[in-house]
Amino acid sequence: MNLTFLETFIWVAKLKSFTLAADRMHATQAAVSSRIASLERELGVRLFDREPREVRLTPDGHFALERAERLVKQAQEFVSEIAGEERLRGTVRIGVIDTISHSWLIDLIKRSKMRYPQINLELTADTSLRLTDDLIANELDVALMMGPLLRQDIVNVDLCTYSCRWVGSPELGLHGRPLNVDDLAGFPILSFPKGAQPYEALRSFFHRQLEADTVLYATNSLATIIRMACDGIGVAALPSVVTWRERGRGELVELDVRQTFPPLSFHAVHVNSPNMMLPATIAGLAREVAREFCERTDSALAW
Prior knowledge:
The protein is an alpha/beta fold. The chain contains twelve helices and twelve strands. Helix 1 (3-15) crosses helix 2, helix 1 crosses helix 4 and helix 2 (18-24) packs across helix 3 (29-43). It is elongated.
């Protein structure tokens, strides 16, 4: 039984397309069709009903899919157990958002180098929205982002949750007294761009569309948001773990806002692929590193 043929069968079943499966496996459509035909001949059953716009599993195909996935998974486990994780090799394309870059990304790189010296990491920094597009387009193997991404062919590994606090420059004179939403709305609001999870949380926080006379500065750069807040341009709701340096230097102060801003959740997202060993390994390592980072920072911020 050819494992590549089984992997091809799994991808066609998940994507419901020979063309998409060919793109995913970096093969031609003719090669994919040939593999499926060979597998059907070997099994003596028809796995798919070919329709003009998509392919559908036959009853025999449904029966075979679960067993094919089990066989491929067992083959992966065999390789891992015999070769050992330290011998894993290859390249993993990782997309990462700014918030993670500013917190525990370096820890992840160091841990990966120590534990999996034969795995190369290719890093891309962007917003969660763009990383999602790149992941679906098979331009990334793992996305470390605000999630989850709810798709049938996607695995979401829960990494950590960051609490957010409103901060601003001490020059604004807002610290040391209780504030409410209306108090904040009188100052420019610094935010990530439309469509980003923090932006949508911001809209919910104000319980309505931002008022026409409320100034909003949106950027996809966390470093720019922090810098603008330090310079007194406006106020921002940011995870405490990414502003501790500025608060320690007195460039930012935490504001006493009565209404709490919702926390932000982060996930390592990758495709549920038959060849998911490397992406799954890095996603699991990211979870380990993120949890340790949160434990350290929770203790440090407890003061």
